[in-house]
Amino acid sequence: MLQLLPNTFAQDNTQWGVPEGARTRLGRGRTGEIRYSPDGTRLAVASGIGIWLYDTTTYQEVSLLTGQSEQIFNIAFSPDGKTIASGCYDGTICLWDIGTGTHETRLTTYKVSVNSVAFSPEGRTLACGSDDGTVRLWDAHTSASKITPTGHTDSVSSVAFSPDGKILASGSRDGNIHLWDADTGEYKKTLTGHTFWVTSLAFSPDGKTLASGSLDSTVLLWELFEAPPPTPQ
Fold it and tell me: Over the stretch 94-148, which tens digit does the pLDDT of each residue have?
């Protein structure tokens, strides 16, 4: 459901108690992930009542996407910026048309919360991690389920594609990071080093390094590809 908001609504409390150096206050209710659209014209804020969309020229609310029944903590824009995916504590994943604000489809309903969503770089695949310990991949255009890699022993809290779209990384509450072939779901490797919940993952632009954050208060950098041996002289 799309709710269009009058400009006067945004003027009520966006400046109340704003810290020095901050431009304005965005969002209402408990806030989850925030994401800029690829073209930079929209800022999306996940919240307990839906997804707020802001015009980045004025930072005024332009719409509120609602339809999921509980807190939305994780969102992702498709690479072309036309679609936003949202994972919710009610176990649902929704795809939204940004241009119209319409709810396109609901991929599935889990019995547990969806903790992370990510589009592949070319936009054809959507990955998600959930409290049931699985990583699931979906065709973002047809909404068909593609692959369900398994191997984590606790909830999956973060998923991320490598820049070339060939590797999918998943971080879990079990403290491990698994690497998967993004096309086949084949298990490739486990990265161990964190002592607690892996909460976030990010690939470097060249895809050679993976950064991981954890509730053990550490950030680790993983070199995914060994340097080639030196050329004999």
Answer: 899 888 777 767 777 667 788 999 999 999 999 999 888 889 999 998 888 888 8
Question: How confident is the model over 176-212, as pLDDT tens digits?
Answer: 999 999 999 899 999 999 999 999 999 999 999 999 9
15 in any annotated domain: no
pTM for the model stands at 0.80
For residue 173, give its domain range.
Answer: 113-227
Q: How far apart are CA 131 and CA 174, in angstroms?
A: 11
DSSP secondary structure, the chain, as one string = -EE---HHHHTTTTTTTPPTT-------SSEEEEEE-TTSSEEEEEESS-EEEEETTTTEEEEEE---SS-EEEEEE-TTSSEEEEEETTSEEEEEETTT--EEEEEEE-SS-EEEEEE-TTSSEEEEEETTS-EEEEETTT--EEE-----SS-EEEEEE-TTSSEEEEEETTS-EEEEETTT--EEEEE---SS-EEEEEE-TTSSEEEEEETTS-EEEEE-SPPPPPPP-
**Domain finish residue from 57, 74, 109:** 109
